Amino acid sequence: IWIPADIKGLQLVNPLVPQTSSCNIIFTQLQISITKQERKTAPIQCHVSGISLDSAYIHWYRQKPGKAPERILYLSSGKPVFDRDSDKGKFEAEKIPTASICTLTVRRISKDDAATYYCQLINFPTCPEHYG
User: Fold this and answer.
1) Is the pTM of the predicted complex or chain greater than 0.85?
2) Are strands 26-28 and 81-82 parallel, antiparallel or unpaired?
3) Cβ-proximal residues to 114 (8 Å cutoff; 6+ apart), any chain
4) 59, 74, 112, 115: least CB-packed within 10 angstroms?
């Protein structure tokens, strides 16, 4: 999320450009950035092709300016597993296997949410680790 100095809005930034891995998995980010007003909700989508999302583990990370990335949650076939209990009301995640899309939703956006958000596929038997 980037906070414009003169606008009462927040911009969610996800630097996912089409990225190909050795396992022919491609991540595509359709919206490079999202601008929202504070207290609104912002969905961030990651399109994954070359693998079925049914069996994939999707991890979502947030990287604040000047900080290391931190994992927010991961999602397999059930409900998301959060790294911090305090994030349970802030974030929501889902996989839509029929559309090959995974979504991270940021609720009640505040200035503290200014960050770059990443999706990652990990622990797939033949393709151990891929980022988008």
Assistant:
1) no
2) unpaired
3) 1, 2, 3, 10, 64, 65
4) 112
Q: Which residues pair with 47 in a beta bridge?
A: 28, 101
Instruction: Find out whether 48 and 41 touch, Cβ atoms under 8 Å.
Output: no
Question: Which amino acid does the sequence have at 101?
Answer: I
Task: At 17, list the tokens.
Answer: 């450009």
Whether 93 and 75 have beta carbons less than 8 Å apart is answered as: yes
**Alpha helix (H) ranges present in 20-127?**
none
pLDDT band at 126 (very low <50, low <70, confident <90, very high): low
- 105 within 8 A of 91, measured Cβ to Cβ: yes
Per-residue DSSP letters for 28-52? Answer: E-S-SEEEE-TT--EEEEEEEESS-
Is the model's pLDDT at 107 over the cut of 90? yes
Contact 54, 96 (CB under 8 A): no
Q: Walk me through the domains of the chain, giving residue ranges and CATH numbers.
A: 10-131 (2.60.40.10)
Residue 51 pLDDT:
77
